[in-house]
Amino acid sequence: MQKMTIFYFFLTIFIFTTTATRTNAERRKLVVGGRVEVKNVKTNKEIQELGKFSVEEYNKNILENPIQDVAGRAGLEGPLRFIEVVEAQKQVVSGLKYYLRVVAMQNNQNNIIINNKNNDDGLISKTFDAIVVVKPWVESKQLHYFGPSPK
Question: In the record, which residues are listed under signal peptide (predicted)?
Fold first, then answer.
């Protein structure tokens, strides 16, 4: 009887320590306020909608402020056509802050072939970075940044 009690005692300690260790390791991955990679970006409808929203907001901004935009946006020319989000990260702030890498088509006004991504219809594929903050409790989405990606 005493051997069984000792066995169960050590078994309980073993289970408790391995579970606690695994939980602590998982906790270390999540830092409060830290960025977390979003999985399955290409099939995630919410992320794709946020990417489309960021392109629409950019297009709306260049129509409202064309002179300011050309000067402040490092040579972005004309409206964009959303293709897809290829990378995304999420951060909990006063809402959810999404860091998106967006692929969009742009008019190739000079008809220059860039990285063999020129299409017959005069559009070229470019990658952009966008930051969107979502506050679901007030049904708010706001584009904080949109510009050419260094990658």
Answer: 1-25
